[in-house]
Specification:
Largest sheet: none
Strand content: under 5%
Helix content: over 70%
Number of domains: 1
Length: 143
């Protein structure tokens, strides 16, 4: 159980950063193999994924002035598009932080926009948690 939850946490954490990953598959495996109680697995995945998004927030918050540099994690054109999106929809756009491709850069922009970390974390934990609840619900309905 500890190994499965550790792997799930790491997968969820890394999947929330700008690195590619799919923690939903691992969550489905943990639940389907009964490697841990579903509620615990959902909590571990949600916490890991939220903390990974906080890394993105930090990148945006502390490194936004370097956005023109080649090593910055979001290309300038996409960064500007996400900034426009965030300016239009505000913090509520973070409810889409779970969505592949757009969610991770959106969390970077939230940091650059200096969204308070408590507001950021509250919205992101809800978005990520609901996503994992849906995945767990689908898995338990199938097995």
């Amino acid at each position: 159980m500890d190994t499965a939850l550790g792997a799930l946490f790491l997968s969820a954490f890394l999947s929330a950063t700008l690195l590619p990953g799919s923690s939903e598959v691992l969550l489905a495996g943990v639940i389907s193999k009964a490697a841990a109680p579903a509620g615990v697995a959902i909590a571990v995945a949600t916490i890991g994924n939220t903390l990974g998004s906080c890394v993105n927030w930090c990148l945006g918050r502390f490194f936004a002035s370097y956005r023109g540099h080649r090593w910055f994690p979001v290309p300038a054109e996409k960064y500007d598009r996400y900034c426009d999106w965030y300016a239009r929809w505000g913090v509520w756009s973070l409810l889409l932080s779970w969505v592949p491709v757009i969610g991770d850069p959106l969390t970077v922009v939230a940091g650059a926009a200096r969204t308070p970390i408590l507001v950021f974390s509250a919205i992101v934990v809800i978005a990520k948690g609901v996503r994992y609840l849906v995945v767990a619900g689908i898995v338990t309905a199938v097995i």
